[in-house]
C-alpha cells in the first residue's frame, strides 16, 4: 500500500505541475519527503498503527512524486540533442544513489537506533532542496 501510494504522488504531481510548474511541485514534494524523514524520528516510537500507516502512506506519496518532475525538468532544460542521454544519465544516477542509500541504511540499522537512521536520510532532501532553489530562481522554474 505504501509503495503503491507513490503512483498517487506521481500522477497528482503531474497534474499540479501544469498549474505550478515542475520545479515548484518537485520542491514541495521533496520538502514534504524531508519532513517525513524528520517526523519518522518521533513517529516510529508510536506503536499505534492508526498513526503509523497513514503516515507511511503519505510518505509513499511524496517520496516518489518528485521523480517524474525531475525527469520533466531534465528533459526541458537539457540541450535538445542530448535529452535522451541526459535522462539516461540522471535515471542511472538516481538508481545508483537509491541502491547506495538502501545499503548504507541497512548497515546503519545494525549500528544505530532506527529513528536516528531515518534522521540521517534527511541529508538527501536537504541537498536536493538547495539545488532546486537555483532552478526556482531561474526563469525556467515554470517548467
Account of the 3D structure:
- By secondary structure, this protein is mostly helical.
- The protein has a single domain, classed as Growth Hormone, Chain: A, CATH 1.20.1250.20.
- It is 83% helix and 0% strand.
- It has six helices and no strands.
- The chain has helices spanning 5-20, 22-43, 49-77, 83-111, 114-120, 123-137.
- The relative contact order is 0.17.
Structural topology:
Elements: H1 5-20, H2 22-43, H3 49-77, H4 83-111, H5 114-120, H6 123-137
Helix pairs in contact: 1-2, 1-3, 2-3, 2-5, 2-6, 3-4
Please give a handful of descriptors for the protein shown.
mainly alpha, 0% strand, 6 helices, 143 residues
Describe the structure concisely:
The chain is mainly α and 143 residues long. It is 83% helix and 0% strand.
- Which CATH architecture would you pick? Up-down Bundle
How many beta-strand elements?
Answer: 0
What is the count of distinct domains?
Answer: 1
Measured as a percent range, the helix fraction is: over 70%
Q: Write the H/E string, N to C.
A: HHHHHH
What share of residues are in beta strands?
A: under 5%
Q: So what's the CATH class?
A: Mainly Alpha
What is the rounded Rg? 16 Å
General form: globular
Discrete helix count: 6
Report how far the terminal alpha carbons are from each other.
31 Å
CATH H-level homologous superfamily name? MFS general substrate transporter like domains
- The residue-averaged pLDDT reads 89
Low-pLDDT parts are none
Profile the largest sheet.
none
CATH topology: Growth Hormone, Chain: A
SS content category: mainly alpha
Amino acid at each position: 500500500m505504501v509503495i503503491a501510494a507513490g503512483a498517487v504522488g506521481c500522477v497528482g504531481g503531474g497534474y499540479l505541475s501544469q498549474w505550478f510548474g515542475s520545479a515548484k511541485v518537485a520542491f514541495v514534494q521533496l520538502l514534504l519527503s524531508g519532513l517525513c524523514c524528520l517526523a519518522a524520528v518521533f513517529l516510529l516510537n508510536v506503536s499505534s498503527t492508526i498513526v503509523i500507516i497513514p503516515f507511511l502512506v503519505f510518505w509513499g506519496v511524496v517520496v516518489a512524486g518528485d521523480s517524474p518532475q525531475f525527469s520533466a525538468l531534465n528533459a526541458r532544460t537539457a540541450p535538445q540533442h542530448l535529452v535522451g542521454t541526459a535522462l539516461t544519465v540522471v535515471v542511472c544516477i538516481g538508481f545508483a544513489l537509491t541502491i547506495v542509500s538502501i545499503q548504507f541504511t541497512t548497515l546503519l540499522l545494525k549500528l544505530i537506533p532506527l529513528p536516528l537512521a531515518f534522521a540521517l536520510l534527511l541529508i538527501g532532501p536537504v541537498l536536493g532542496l538547495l539545488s532546486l532553489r537555483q532552478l526556482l530562481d531561474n526563469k525556467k522554474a515554470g517548467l
